[in-house]
Amino acid sequence: MKKTIKTLLIVLVILVMVAACRAKPEEEQVSELAGEPTALPQVDRTHKMSVLVHDSFAVSEAVIFAFEEANDVNVSFIKAGDAGAALNRAILTKDAPIADVFYGVDNTFLSRAIEEDLFEAYDSPLLADIDDRLKQAPNNEALPVDFGDVCLNYDKAILNEDNIPVPTGFESLTNEMYRDMLVVQNPATSSTGLAFLLATIDYFGEDGYLDYWRALQSYGLLVVNDWETAYYGHFSRYAGEQSGRPIVVSYATSPAAELIFSPEPLEEAPTAAVLTRGTCFRQIEFVGILKGTQQRELAEKFVDFMLDEPFQNDIAPQMFMMPVNNRVPTPLIYDDIEGMPLFPVLMDPDLIAEKRDAWIEEWTEAVLR
Amino acid sequence: MLNKRPSMRWLLWLMPLAFMAVFFYHPLVRVFERMLRAVAVTGLGTPNALRIIIRALTFTLWQAGLSTLLTMLLGLPAAYLFARFRFPGKRVFSVLFTLPFILPTVVVVTAFTATLGAGGWVNQALMNLFNLARPPLSFTNTLGAILLVHVFYNLAIVIRVVGSAWSQLDLKTVHAARVLGASPWRALREVTLPLLRPSLLAAAVLVFLFDFTSFAVILMLGGPRFSTLEVEIYLQALNLLNLPLAAALAAVQLGVTLLLTILYQQVQGLSNLPLLPRLHGETTRTPRNWAETAFVALMLVLLVILLVLPLGVLLLRSVQYTPPGSQQPQLTLLYFRELFVNRRGSLFYVAPIQAVRNSLIYAVLTMVFSLVLGYQIAYAFEHRTVLARWLETAVMLPLGASPITLGLGFILVFSRPPWDPGSFPLLIPLAHTLIALPMVVRTLQPAVNSIPHSLRASAAVLGASPLQRWLRIDLPILSKPALTAGLFAFAVSLGEFGATSFLARPENPTMPTAIFRFFSQPGVLNFGQAMAMSVILLVICAVSFFVIENRQKSP
Questions:
Q1: What backbone torsions phi and psi does residue A251 show, to the nearest 5 degrees?
Q2: Interchain pair B522, A364: CB under 8 A
Q3: Helix crossing, B290-303 with B49-84: angle to 10°?
Q4: Which residues fall within 8 angstroms of residue A235, CB to CB, at 6 or more apart?
Q5: What is the mean pLDDT of residues B354-366?
Q6: Which of residues 82-121 of A touch B (CB under 8 A)?
Q7: Euclidean distance between CA atoms A216 and B423, whole angstroms
Q8: What is the pLDDT of residues B86-118, one digit of tens each?
Q9: Which one is predicted more confidently, B220 or A252?
Q10: Does the structure show a pLDDT above 80 at B3?
Q11: CB contact, 8 Å: A40 with chain B?
């Protein structure tokens, strides 16, 4: 039996060593396979700073590297879940902040974040290049970095095949021809779902929106808890024609992602967004310097960097959102989809903060019970 | 451990207790303290608090109880199958049936929706067979979906824990009963099941606690109408930012776990009968008559359909691509190739090799830590003093603690150097160990308690030192349960995506992190890569299980 234990231990140790040792040569090989230049060197620099972000944050290696070089700093990112979870982490560690900068508060959480006194105000010079309507923090405690529009998406193939006209807005959906075709997310658990709910509240008013939702229900509405389940579990593009639903709540840029992440080049995007007036809700994402940071100067530089052209140009290809900086041209990757909404809903963040819980509860009573 | 000086016993407790204090109790106390501070300011946040708590509690108990019942009902015959019979491919099936345990929920949801959803295989088949117009089985947002996936996940626990004990039962008692005239069913009822009671209870408690704190399954498959304590904690803590109510819910959850553990201890009592090491193959036989053959075949088919078919669907989807305009899917390795390409130059690109490496290292470390601590705890429990019972409860509590609450505790305690994941990489396997430890203890403990003292006494009389006794008597008897325990620890670590996601850093991605990342953006390539990565996770897991399992010497 001693032998068995010995062999077991030896095998385990070998496993670990092999796994650990294979990694380095493999990684270089991988980069060559990709036909890309080898990964950028990891240099140890004088200063260190950390940025708290949500899970959807993405940026090119080269862009960050340029910032690190220019400012002689190593930037490390802490990914903290979705927008709500990340905010929660910032609040919990308020007394001893775990990062210098926090990116990821969106307009539905903005008032709460400011109320919790998380940020140090910063009047970045780059704010001049940003549309005033996006600057929703009263004293620039948080600065807008990018925005995205939550819109209805539909599967072109399915609607074409059955000769069903493209939905033209909220009211069009309460119609027999769209029975059992819509899947949405629960506003209590999904920021996408919340954005859609807020859009309907804006459109139908606080007194009318519940009737609209009851009508939607009578036409076979499906509510699921999160974006992944809705999009990959029920959207007909992934769930198939028979069980899938061809209309889902997603982003205005989702058709562009479908185009780009397609194995073969496609002539046109397989899905499209409903862009009519008032049916899309604008989600704005903000960055702020966390109160208590020991690196105020570097933090300011990082915020400026996020608002400046190199990073702003990188936002679309990496995160499929829209840059806020006016000097940045409309991203190329959105050229092949049918436009962006001209009149999205921009709701007052204070109103959202005040009424959000009540609205969600009302909606839950009306639709889910 | 005869003749141990009293002072020595405390040494056994030292390490496990220190570990629990640092990694469980300290974070938990900190997070509760924080939440209570908020309660003092805002109260419970909403007048509906009590209603929410009660509703969540009743549903959680209901779904966990039902899931456990179903899992045990199916698990018992399955355990019997593995304990008593030899059949071709047994080792392969053993590994396959344990794989579901490690899969991240988002992958399982996709696999099941593809199999059982309205457009899935089963419904399609039924529609074709019976000429139906609409899919007969409804899967989305139903309690049935929750129960089914819970069984899918946890059957492996019952098969292994109960099966392992069953295969070590002394057949002589059963034969004696038969000789004295008992029918096979009577022998089962009155001899076998009572002997198996410790492992049955252990398995049932484990499965119940897993189902009790289940989160992603309820969220994704149950849909908005079903809410358990954990889902409510998530909603309150992370979406509504209502920490006080989250604290109340977490406290209720811990309270139930406490009650359950105490109950378990009372029922378990001293009913541990001796387990002697069996010669490999002593208790298994090939099916002797048509009834037994039918049983083996039927069970295998059933288990394959439930546990392996969804995995097969996953595999299929990772190699399928339907070109635009065509109805026929083609086979392609495109998604696997794409995994190795950082096409968009992203800083957060996860190289598959790196993810595999990290996951494996964490898993091996978790296994080692859990076994070391687990052995110590199992031995420390041997003397069932009152203090020992309380300490046992203390060790079992993490299993029923809210992973999200624990995660929040981790944020409060392990966020600053030198204790943050960046500076202290061992933090993550240690956190995994915390989650795996109760399972390891539950598996090892009945076995340790069953080692006949007479054997040890004889060895001592014959001149064996304590160490020799341990190595030559205890370890061989414990080798099978220890293997099961180690395997589970390994599996828990590989698939962990709950509390430890609060600790994860982008520099050290694991396979579940990578999978999740692909699911968060639209696009066929993203979906395909998520599937491909899941298949890689499955393969790595299967290979590891095979290696670990087959260390056992066969005659």
A1: -110, 160
A2: no
A3: 140
A4: A153, A155, A183, A244, A245, A246, A248, A250
A5: 92
A6: 82, 84-85, 87-89, 91-93, 96, 98, 112
A7: 52
A8: 888 888 998 899 888 878 887 887 788 777 776
A9: A252
A10: no
A11: no
Q: Residue A37 above 70 pLDDT?
A: no
Task: Name the least confident of A35-49, B68-82, B193-207.
Answer: A35-49
How is residue A145 annotated by DSSP? E
- Residue position matching structure tokens 């006949």: B452
Q: Which residues contact A55 (CB under 8 A, 6 or more apart)?
A: A79, A80, A81, A82, A86, B516, B517, B520
Q: CB A357 to CB B342 under 8 A?
A: no
Distance from CA of A169 to the nearest CA of B (A): 23
| Whole-number Å distance between alpha carbons of B366 and B364 | 5
CA distance A305 to A323: 13
Q: Which of residues 189-228 of A touch B (CB under 8 A)?
A: 189, 222-228
The residue of chain B nearest to residue A254, with distances taken between CA atoms, is B522
Task: Report the interhelical angle of B475-495 vs B352-380 (nearest 10°).
Answer: 140
Contact assignment for A77 to B347 by CB distance below 8 Å = yes
B249-264: pLDDT as tens digits: 988 998 998 888 888 8
Q: Which residues contact A201 (CB under 8 A, 6 or more apart)?
A: A209, A359
Nearest Cα to Cα of residue B350 among B515, B489, B237 = B515
pLDDT digits (tens, 9 = 90+) for B407-436: 888 888 888 777 887 778 888 899 899 888
Phi, psi dihedrals of residue A148, rounded to the nearest 5°? -145, 155
Query: How far is Cα A67 from Cα A47, in angstroms, rounded to an integer?
Result: 12
Measured between beta carbons, which residues in chain B are less than 8 angstroms from residue A8?
551
Across the A/B interface, how many CB contacts are shorter than 8 Å?
A: 216
* Stretch (H or E) spanning A78: strand A73-79
Mutate to test the interface with A, among B34, B37, B113 (most CBs of A within 10 A): B113
The DSSP string of A270-312 is SEEE---TTS-EEEEEEEEEETT-S-HHHHHHHHHHHHSHHHH
Tokens representing A189 are: 């658990």
Quick one: closest CA in B to A20, which residue?
A: B357
Report which of A165, A188, A110, A153 is spatially closest to residue A270, judged by C-alpha positions. A153
Residues on chain A touching B146 (C-beta within 8 angstroms): none
What global pTM score does this model have? 0.87
Running DSSP on this structure, what letter comes out for residue A141? S
Residues in B closer than 8 angstroms to A189, CB to CB, are 219, 224, 234-235, 239
B43: region left, alpha or beta (phi > 0 left; psi from -120 to 50 alpha): left
Q: What is the pLDDT of residue A38?
A: 43
Q: What is the pLDDT of residues B507-536, one digit of tens each?
A: 888 888 888 888 888 999 999 999 999 899
What is the structure's pLDDT at B554? 40
CA torsion sign for B513, B516, B521, B527 is: positive
- Whole-complex ipTM: 0.85
Instruction: State the Cα–Cα distance between residues A351 and A345, nearest whole angstrom.
Output: 13
Collapsing DSSP to helix, strand or coil, A148 comes out as strand
* Exposure b/e, B509-523, CB count within 10 A at least 16 = b: bbbbbbbbbbbbbbb
